[in-house]
Amino acid sequence: MPSPDASDTATMRAVVIDGFGGPERLHERQVPVPSPGRGQVLIGLETAGVGSWDPFEREGGYAEMLGMSPSFPYVLGSEGAGTVAAVGDGVTSRAVGERVFAASFLNPAGGFYAEYVCVDAGLVAPIPAGMSTSQAAVMGGVGMTALRGLRDALELRSGETLLVHGASGAMGHLAVQLGERLGARVLAVASGDDGVALAARAGAELAIDGRAEHVADGVRRFSADGLDAALLTAGGPEADAAVAAVRPGGRAAYPTGVQPEPASTPGVEPQAFNGEPDAELLERFIALIGDRPLDVHIAREFTLDQIPAAHQALRDHHLGKLAITIG
Ligand SMILES: NC(=O)c1ccc[n+]([C@@H]2O[C@H](COP(=O)([O-])OP(=O)(O)OC[C@H]3O[C@@H](n4cnc5c(N)ncnc54)[C@H](OP(=O)(O)O)[C@@H]3O)[C@@H](O)[C@H]2O)c1
Prior knowledge:
By secondary structure, the chain is an alpha/beta fold. The chain has nine helices and 17 strands. Helix 3 (133-153) crosses helix 8.
């Protein structure tokens, strides 16, 4: 709950930066609780997701790339879940007390590393039945980006063959599940034995270890005709090998941020895309979940004061997502 400060303005715990830089710049501070403007929802957060892109934002990468001059203190974090605490004028889709999750990249009203966040109502949805608050909190950013990639960039169709590279990562393990729900046969290229086990559990028809096996060998075992499509959530030689295994006329795509950018072949030019969550994409994402909860894997949960450690942990091998427990 927000606590009143000396001026009786409601404040909350948040992890802020006072300038761009390394993880040591992240620290806890009492800041004003944001007030929901027209069309916005105030969420009391219990869990926030740690995005693999958060360190780039912390270092000022997006500010430079997009020519923004943000004000400080600056609250990072672009996804989370909790309970609706208040709604702004004009909001009829959400109600106080509802259990919800949301994802909003570079959220104009402040980030999710805090007890409260204000988000446009169109980016807020009920926590799907059968999913925990933590799972819903961390799935928004990567889940919707995976769907954007599979449906809008790759235009994946039922019955097609799909390779997911980085299949045990945050986006990858959800992309395997969404690809299978869209009717594709999925070849997962995961990291390590534990990653292969996760990708198999996620519904891959074949899962291989891309740190120990050659992608080309895996593709030969999987499909005699090459691949219809490849979603690349990591870069490097094995991502390039995945593009090379796509049949002429097939498609390959990667979310902006993947480095090095996957290389083209004479027959296939990988397409970069962004998640760009919006109300319509969120609706499609929820519809695809339906009454079949996504198996969202959380490798580790941190507390608010451990966010610097969470940013460091992103660099180490882990499966699925990292989460911040707030409430
Ligand atoms: N543009 C957008 O809208 C958008 C949105 C979200 C994310 N992104 C970008 O999308 C990318 C993926 O995001 P994420 O959150 O899913 O990151 P992530 O959790 O770090 O996933 C990447 C995965 O790739 C794995 N990997 C790397 N090389 C491999 C190999 N040779 N074989 C098998 N697996 C391999 C890593 O495994 P290890 O455990 O071994 O490291 C890791 O699990 C990032 O570059 C991010 O910046 C872009």
